[in-house]
């Protein structure tokens, strides 16, 4: 008598079946993404790559501030708020990109110029500070450089967002239109590859820093300074990636024009095929331009007027203007879709608004745990590699789950993974070395914690970006990207404000010495850092989950 065959999920696992399952998983999550790759996706990916490489100078900046500048953790959090404000301006910039789409290359060049100016200021401060102090103090030049770079990157990022829409083809090589399902999948792929490009940039940065800081423990102050200068010189190449992306886009368009001309199309027909359709050309939206002009004037006046709580007033005013503009902009959407958009924005806003412990946390790791430049570079390398892997591993999870499920899962996971840092402050590494194994020290715990936490940060953005690329009105793609980006970056501004508030309540200082006399002007004090960690972890758990609870019972109640 022949035995009945078992269902696939009840088959005993063998080496061949395990390999087959692994291949199926790899095919669905990685090979399939590679098969969907198109040359037209490369130009926006190169602009995103430049954004990822922008972190090349971050470790140098951390140690430069700690060793050469006497800025407090509270001031740095305030500076972080102002550095995020250009990103909140993505809405008017996005609308201008839609209006000036034919001149997008010039906008990329403008952004590259601002980035180079920021890098040159920092390079000169490091290499020849005396030539700079005749105009402003070193601290003032540092602030100017910190504020210039985001303006350049926000211009380039806004153009890249719109380029991702243009990169997705609408017709195949035979002139036949793709189906809606194919276009939707292509948009999701393009957005995933955009995040991959950003993380790949951070991976390049981490590898470079690990190499440059390989002998940092044997270097004196002058040798370390020479390494810092070398890194900033290399950083001047960052804008080249985005410029090359624009040049490649022009080359691909030229090739396409020649291909269509060879098939017998006239110039007017080629222009009609390759350019945006007339019905997709953006028209001036005076609500956006007028509202954003109000936003800019309000922020500038409040910034110049040294009134109490000016950053907080700017945030409230900016958020009110952007929410109003979002409401006006989405007026043509159905009520259900509009609620979904606002609910999604609220949930991601809350997730990104969670405060950090601030610069004091890094100072403590450097001074008390002995984390040097090379070790911090290794942590960044692990973060980049595993984030890149995580975007493939969680690709199906992102596609099959709602945004509330994704954010709730990430919130719980990140809360749990924040506990080891709190444990390190209270001597967890000393206990593990004494009772478990000698190699489980502070660096080992930090490496493991970073490895577990790193894939989670970028996941939340991809579903929202894919939704905009697929569902926003065609003539306002850049504007919609910019509106949502403005909301998200205002959330990061709120994060900086909350971080500033926490650093005001819990004062954390590192040792500051006079560069000439060596006299300590500010002693190191990390006694309140434990309380700061605890409050930050609690807020990181409570803010997103409370927002999800409210949104599901209001905006998502009918979904």
In short:
It contains 24 helices and 2 strands. The chain is an all-alpha fold. Strands 1-2 form a two-stranded antiparallel ribbon.
Describe it.
By secondary structure, this protein is mostly helical. The model has no long low-confidence stretch (mean pLDDT 79). It contains 24 helices and two strands. It has a two-stranded antiparallel sheet with strand order 1-2. The protein starts with 14 loop residues before the first helix and ends in a 7-residue tail after the last helix.
Task: Present the secondary structure layout.
Blueprint: H1 15-35, H2 42-53, H3 58-68, H4 73-88, H5 90-99, H6 104-127, H7 130-133, H8 138-167, H9 180-212, H10 221-235, H11 238-262, H12 267-274, H13 286-304, H14 310-329, H15 335-352, H16 359-367, H17 373-393, H18 395-400, H19 403-425, H20 428-435, H21 442-453, H22 461-471, H23 477-505, E1 512-513, E2 520-522, H24 529-552
Antiparallel strand pairs: 1-2
Helix pairs in contact: 2-8, 2-9, 2-11, 4-8, 4-23, 5-8, 5-23, 6-8, 6-10, 6-11, 8-23, 9-17, 9-22, 11-12, 13-14, 14-23, 15-19, 15-23, 15-24, 17-21, 19-21, 19-24
